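BUG: 3D viewer hangs when loading the predicted structure for this chain

Environment: internal workstation, default settings.
Expected: structure renders.
Actual: progress bar stalls at 90%.

Input used:
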Amino acid sequence: MPAFPKRYADAVAKLRVPSGFVLVAVFAWFSRPTSHSLVLGPPFGLVGLRPAGLGIASRNIGLGTLLVAVFLLVYLPVIQLEEQHLRNLFPEYAPYAERVPAL
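C-alpha coordinates produced before the viewer hung:
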Protein backbone atom coordinates (compact mmCIF):
# COMPACT_ATOMS: atom_id res chain seq x y z
CA MET A 1 0.00 0.00 0.00
CA PRO A 2 1.43 3.44 -0.84
CA ALA A 3 2.46 5.67 2.03
CA PHE A 4 0.31 8.78 2.50
CA PRO A 5 1.37 11.84 4.51
CA LYS A 6 -0.26 11.83 7.94
CA ARG A 7 -1.75 15.33 7.47
CA TYR A 8 -3.47 14.17 4.28
CA ALA A 9 -4.73 10.96 5.89
CA ASP A 10 -6.06 12.91 8.90
CA ALA A 11 -7.86 15.39 6.62
CA VAL A 12 -9.56 12.75 4.48
CA ALA A 13 -10.49 10.74 7.57
CA LYS A 14 -12.45 13.76 8.85
CA LEU A 15 -14.12 14.29 5.48
CA ARG A 16 -14.91 10.64 4.81
CA VAL A 17 -18.39 10.53 6.38
CA PRO A 18 -19.70 13.94 5.19
CA SER A 19 -18.40 13.30 1.69
CA GLY A 20 -20.16 9.94 1.75
CA PHE A 21 -23.50 11.74 1.95
CA VAL A 22 -22.54 13.86 -1.05
CA LEU A 23 -21.49 10.73 -2.91
CA VAL A 24 -24.88 9.11 -2.24
CA ALA A 25 -26.65 12.18 -3.64
CA VAL A 26 -24.41 12.16 -6.74
CA PHE A 27 -25.17 8.48 -7.26
CA ALA A 28 -28.89 9.00 -6.83
CA TRP A 29 -28.84 11.79 -9.41
CA PHE A 30 -26.58 10.29 -12.07
CA SER A 31 -27.24 6.54 -11.86
CA ARG A 32 -29.11 4.92 -14.72
CA PRO A 33 -29.75 1.44 -13.35
CA THR A 34 -31.63 -1.22 -15.23
CA SER A 35 -32.94 -4.50 -13.90
CA HIS A 36 -29.97 -6.17 -15.61
CA SER A 37 -27.36 -3.87 -13.97
CA LEU A 38 -29.07 -4.27 -10.60
CA VAL A 39 -28.68 -8.03 -10.93
CA LEU A 40 -25.05 -7.88 -12.08
CA GLY A 41 -23.74 -5.31 -9.55
CA PRO A 42 -24.58 -6.78 -6.12
CA PRO A 43 -22.56 -10.02 -6.49
CA PHE A 44 -19.41 -7.88 -6.78
CA GLY A 45 -20.37 -6.10 -3.56
CA LEU A 46 -20.99 -9.39 -1.80
CA VAL A 47 -17.42 -10.53 -2.45
CA GLY A 48 -16.01 -7.23 -1.15
CA LEU A 49 -15.73 -5.24 -4.38
CA ARG A 50 -18.26 -2.49 -3.49
CA PRO A 51 -16.72 0.23 -5.82
CA ALA A 52 -17.10 -2.27 -8.75
CA GLY A 53 -20.59 -3.44 -7.70
CA LEU A 54 -21.94 0.09 -7.32
CA GLY A 55 -20.38 1.18 -10.60
CA ILE A 56 -21.93 -1.73 -12.48
CA ALA A 57 -25.32 -1.23 -10.83
CA SER A 58 -25.28 2.50 -11.64
CA ARG A 59 -24.52 1.90 -15.35
CA ASN A 60 -22.42 5.06 -15.41
CA ILE A 61 -18.71 4.88 -16.22
CA GLY A 62 -18.14 8.29 -14.64
CA LEU A 63 -19.60 7.10 -11.33
CA GLY A 64 -17.47 3.97 -11.52
CA THR A 65 -14.39 6.13 -12.05
CA LEU A 66 -15.44 8.38 -9.17
CA LEU A 67 -15.71 5.35 -6.86
CA VAL A 68 -12.23 4.18 -7.80
CA ALA A 69 -10.84 7.68 -7.16
CA VAL A 70 -12.58 7.90 -3.77
CA PHE A 71 -11.24 4.49 -2.82
CA LEU A 72 -7.68 5.37 -3.80
CA LEU A 73 -7.65 8.92 -2.45
CA VAL A 74 -9.79 8.50 0.67
CA TYR A 75 -10.06 4.93 1.86
CA LEU A 76 -6.48 3.78 1.33
CA PRO A 77 -5.04 6.64 3.43
CA VAL A 78 -7.68 6.06 6.12
CA ILE A 79 -6.87 2.34 6.21
CA GLN A 80 -3.19 3.21 6.59
CA LEU A 81 -3.97 5.68 9.39
CA GLU A 82 -6.11 3.12 11.22
CA GLU A 83 -3.37 0.50 10.92
CA GLN A 84 -0.88 2.93 12.49
CA HIS A 85 -3.34 3.57 15.31
CA LEU A 86 -3.82 -0.17 15.90
CA ARG A 87 -0.05 -0.72 15.97
CA ASN A 88 0.23 1.94 18.70
CA LEU A 89 -2.65 0.53 20.76
CA PHE A 90 -1.91 -3.17 20.42
CA PRO A 91 1.69 -4.42 20.23
CA GLU A 92 0.42 -7.81 19.06
CA TYR A 93 -1.14 -6.18 15.98
CA ALA A 94 2.21 -5.96 14.12
CA PRO A 95 2.67 -9.74 13.71
CA TYR A 96 -0.98 -10.04 12.72
CA ALA A 97 -0.63 -7.31 10.09
CA GLU A 98 2.39 -9.08 8.60
CA ARG A 99 0.30 -12.22 8.05
CA VAL A 100 -2.97 -10.61 6.91
CA PRO A 101 -3.21 -8.15 4.02
CA ALA A 102 -4.84 -4.77 4.70
CA LEU A 103 -7.53 -5.32 2.09
